C-alpha cells in the first residue's frame, strides 16, 4: 500500500489552512568552491525569520541522482510518486490552457526556436519571444492539414504553444525533437515504441508543413516538440487528502498540473503580487493553496546568477503579506534545483521550509542550502511533504490501534 492509498483512511476534517509556495527551480550552486548559492546570497530577512520558527530540510524531487522535469517535480510535491504517476508535458500544457483532451488525443508542447541559415538552432526559445508576437504564429500553424488526423494548435505563453493530434491508433511514446542545445538541428521525430510509430509520422509531417509556414520569420522561424502525452488519470486532492484545493499560478503548465489533481484554478494573476491578492480574496473558500513562482527557474536556465538572486529577494519581500493571513501550515520549497552555473534543471535536493504551530523547530538561522542540510527534516523524498503538511495541520488521524 502506498501513501495515496493509505491517507484517505486517516483524514480528519477541520478548518485549518495550508499554503504551499513553490519557487520553481529554487535550489542552486555556488559559482566557485566555498561560495554561496543564489538563495544563500539573497537578502531574505523574512524567510530567515520563518526558518527560525519552522523546520527545514532538503527534498529529493524523484529519487537521488534523478534530474526531474517540472511535471515529476510538482507531482512529488503534491504527494504522488513521480515514478508511478507520470504526466507528459504536452498534457500539462494542454490542460493548463483549458483544452479538454479526448481519449484519442496526443498532445505535445511546442517551442518556437530560431534557426540559422544552415538550419541549426541558434536560440531554443526564439529570444523568449513575447506572447503577443508568438500567438499569431501559433494560430498560423492551424493551416497544417494531415489526412485522417485532426490537428489543434493553441498559443500558450511566450515561445510556447500546444499541438494536439486527434485520431484512432495514436500512441504517446515519441521522442522529443528538441536537442536541448544550440548549434545543432532539431531532432527527427522518432517513436520510442512500435505503438507510437504513427504519431511520430504525424508529428514529422506537422513539423515539415509548419517550417514552411514559419519561413521568413526573424525570430520564430523554427519549432521543436516536447513531451508527447495522452490524457492521464490521477486520484484527486479531495479523494486523497480531503482538501478543497486551489491553484494560483501564472503559467499554463502549472495550472494544468494542478487541474489534473483536482485543484480549482482561481484568479487571473500575472505577477506575484497579483497571486497574493488572489490568495487573500479566496482565503475563506479553500483549505489548501498552491502558489507557483516561475522566475527563480527561468533566471537559472538563463545562467543569470544575480538575476536569480533578485527574484529570490522579490519572493522574500512578499512573505509578510502571506503571513498576514495566518496560515496554519506554510511550506516554501521548489520543484527542483536550477543552478545558474548549469543553466538547467539538476538532481540536487531542494531547500524546503515548513512553518506550523505544531512543528518542531530545529535551530536553523537562515533559509539556504547549508542550513537546510542541517535541518530537522533531513533529506527526504518530496512525496512525503504533503503528509507532513497534513499532520501539522491536524488533518491526519492515528494509523492502527
Query: How much of the polypeptide forms β-strand, as a percent range?
Result: 15-25%
Distance separating the two termini? 18 Å
Annotated CATH architecture of the largest domain: 3-Layer(aba) Sandwich
CATH topology of the largest domain: Alkaline Phosphatase, subunit A
Structural class: alpha/beta
- The total count of helices amounts to 14
Total beta-strand segments:
13
Number of domains: 2
Q: What gyration radius follows from the Cα positions, in whole Å?
A: 21 Å
Biggest β-sheet description: 8 strands, mixed
What can you see in these coordinates?
With 401 residues, this protein is an alpha/beta fold. It has two domains: 15-86 and 234-392, Alkaline Phosphatase, subunit A (3-Layer(aba) Sandwich), CATH 3.40.720; 92-229, Alpha-Beta Plaits (2-Layer Sandwich), CATH 3.30.70. It contains 14 helices and 13 strands. The strands form two sheets. It has an eight-stranded mixed sheet with strand order 9-8-10-1-11-12-2-13, sandwiched between helices. Strand 5 (150-157) and strand 6 (160-166) form a beta hairpin. The mean pLDDT is 95.
Amino acid at each position: 500500500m502506498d501513501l495515496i492509498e493509505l491517507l484517505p483512511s486517516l483524514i480528519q476534517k477541520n478548518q485549518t489552512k495550508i499554503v504551499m509556495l513553490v519557487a520553481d527551480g529554487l535550489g542552486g550552486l555556488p559559482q566557485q568552491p566555498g561560495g554561496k548559492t543564489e538563495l544563500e546570497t539573497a537578502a531574505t530577512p523574512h524567510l530567515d525569520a520563518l526558518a527560525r520558527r519552522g523546520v527545514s530540510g532538503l527534498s529529493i524531487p524523484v529519487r537521488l541522482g534523478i534530474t526531474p522535469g517540472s511535471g515529476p517535480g510538482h507531482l512529488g510535491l503534491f504527494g504522488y510518486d513521480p515514478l508511478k504517476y507520470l504526466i507528459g508535458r504536452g498534457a500539462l500544457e494542454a490542460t493548463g490552457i483549458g483544452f479538454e483532451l479526448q481519449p484519442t488525443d496526443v498532445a505535445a508542447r511546442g517551442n518556437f526556436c530560431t534557426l540559422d541559415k544552415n538550419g541549426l538552432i541558434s536560440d531554443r526559445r526564439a529570444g523568449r519571444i513575447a506572447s503577443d508576437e508568438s500567438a499569431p504564429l501559433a494560430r498560423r500553424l492551424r493551416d497544417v492539414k494531415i489526412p485522417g488526423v485532426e490537428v489543434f494548435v493553441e498559443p500558450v505563453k511566450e515561445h510556447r504553444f500546444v499541438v494536439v493530434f486527434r485520431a484512432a491508433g495514436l500512441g504517446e511514446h515519441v521522442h522529443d525533437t528538441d536537442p536541448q542545445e544550440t548549434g545543432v538541428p532539431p531532432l527527427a521525430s522518432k517513436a520510442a515504441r512500435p505503438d507510437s510509430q504513427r504519431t511520430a509520422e504525424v508529428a514529422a509531417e506537422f513539423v515539415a508543413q509548419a517550417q514552411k509556414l514559419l519561413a521568413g520569420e526573424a525570430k520564430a522561424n523554427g519549432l521543436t516538440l516536447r513531451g508527447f502525452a495522452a490524457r492521464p488519470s490521477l486520484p484527486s486532492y479531495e479523494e486523497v487528502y480531503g482538501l478543497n484545493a486551489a491553484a494560483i499560478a501564472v503559467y499554463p503548465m502549472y495550472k494544468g498540473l494542478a487541474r489534473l489533481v483536482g485543484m480549482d484554478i482561481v484568479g487571473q494573476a500575472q505577477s506575484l503580487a497579483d497571486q497574493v491578492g488572489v490568495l487573500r480574496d479566496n482565503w475563506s473558500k479553500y483549505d489548501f493553496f498552491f502558489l507557483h513562482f516561475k522566475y527563480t527557474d527561468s533566471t537559472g536556465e538563463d545562467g543569470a546568477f544575480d538575476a536569480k538572486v533578485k527574484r529570490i529577494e522579490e519572493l522574500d519581500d512578499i512573505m509578510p503579506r502571506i503571513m498576514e493571513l495566518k496560515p496554519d501550515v506554510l511550506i516554501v520549497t521548489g520543484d527542483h534545483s536550477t543552478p545558474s552555473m548549469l543553466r538547467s534543471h539538476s538532481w540536487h535536493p531542494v531547500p524546503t521550509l515548513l512553518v506550523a504551530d505544531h512543528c518542531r523547530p530545529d535551530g536553523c538561522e537562515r533559509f539556504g542550502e547549508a542550513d537546510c542540510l542541517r535541518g530537522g527534516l533531513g533529506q527526504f523524498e518530496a512525496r512525503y511533504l504533503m503528509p507532513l503538511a497534513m499532520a501539522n495541520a491536524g488533518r491526519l488521524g492515528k494509523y492502527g490501534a
